[in-house]
């Protein structure tokens, strides 16, 4: 599976903008989250509720076209003060 990473999150995934993960056939978003957090602990501070200097949010957009055997994903994040959102 290919995961495209937003520029602001690349430091959390060792400077990469694209990740190629060998997930088993039929894996879904939950398995992808588990894999990402296991391989890249730098993503943890982006999770809602994690301690950090400012509120952050980590999002995953899952895409699997009808009839396709493989899915793809986009990893995005936002950080900032409440009422002031900066999207990565």
In the CATH scheme, the class would be: Alpha Beta
Number of helices: 1
Distance between the termini: 22 Å
Task: Indicate the multimeric state.
Answer: single chain
Q: What is the total domain count?
A: 1
Strand proportion, as a percent range, falls in 25-35%
Quick one: how many beta strands?
5
* CATH topology-level fold name: Ubiquitin-like (UB roll)
CATH architecture: Roll
The biggest sheet, with number of strands, parallel, antiparallel or mixed sense and barrel status, is: 5 strands, mixed
> Pairing-aware structural class of the strands and helices?
alpha+beta
Categorize the overall geometry.
globular
Rg from Cα = 14 Å
How would you briefly describe this protein structure?
With 88 residues, this protein is α+β, with helices and mostly antiparallel strands. The protein has one helix at residues 29-39; strands at residues 2-5, 18-20, 56-63, 72-79, 86-87.
